[in-house]
Task: structure prediction
Amino acid sequence: MKIAAVIAEYNPFHNGHEYMLRRIKQDYGYDYIVIIMSGDFVQRGECALLDKYTRTRMALSGGSDLCIELPVIFATGSAEYFAEGAISILNGLGCIDTLFFGAEYDNPEYFQKIAGALVNEPDDYRSLFENYMKQGLSVPSARARALKSHLNLSDAEADALSSSNNILAIEYYKAAIRLSSKYNLIPILRNDDGYHGSESAEAIRHRLVEDSDYNLSSLPMPEASKHLLQNALKRNSISHLNMYRSLIRYAIAQNKYKLFTYLDCNKDIANKLINHLTDFSDTGSYIKLLKSKDITYTRLSRILIHILLGIDSERANIAKNSPDERYARILGFSENAKNGLLSTIKKAAIIPLISKPSDYRPEGISAWMYELDIYAADLFENVLCDITGGNIIPDIIRTPNS
Result:
């Protein structure tokens, strides 16, 4: 039995995602694909377009066999947090053969040598990096130049360091080194539009948020995903960050003396958040007002989510550095998964496998992580139901495929 894994957001699931899953099974010969998927809040510092259960159904209809939720402290964290959280869960499952991921560069050796230099920080690399920092370069620019010199990278290899997907891929390799992962990591080549001509999930989100009457037939999504999306549109169940503007404003005002303690924030950013709070009319313009050369839009967006959810740096760092405290909450599984995958994972896993959330009784830092997952899902559901008028279903009673 060959089991592959993919770390994803599927926000939403499109043709490029289906292409990747199909390749894993048809070209690489894997029997099952396990997805580690963000819940209702995602790495860009936004709420997901669709709830995690709808996106799970999209993933299962598109070729995956099991979807496991990535805890919200990792799903909304930096690339390093995101990768380490997901890799540590895969390690805990104990039966993964290979992790596949999309990237703009498809040479595993490239990612391995970059990650090795960043994890081990040889003296030559560290000296180059510090010299570039003294010249006034930003951290990413100084790191890229130091790596190019230290590893004798070609121009194309150095340019590839700036791609967001390649940055995340490097973090997967770094996490795999740090956590002594035993499986292979294989990149699948993407192009500028996503995967081989498909539009990106970001482009699809923008279309739908800006025009809810958009003709879905032209979207580059599998038919099953389009059907699920169409049902969500009929219920007005499309989410965007501005729906949380009042809650975020309130959270900033209520926590103004400790904003700097939240993950990704510091005292300078905290002062900016407070000083411009009266200018907070909508989240997008507020973030644009605060961003600068050194503080990106995405980082600010993540900070707002961390303040909203109460994700502080101290506990988040403890959680990140406690891989033994992981758990695997199942969001859904395919019929195919019943033919051996679930039983294999139950036997091999060294972390709790959760199918009935109300029965799980974590302790220590994992209790905080789990309570945050439930809180984030309930917040997402409540905000959405305020708009749709639907019935609120507490996340603690939801079960796989529900």
Summary: The chain has three domains: 3-104+181-239+322-397, 110-162, 244-316. The mean pLDDT is 93.
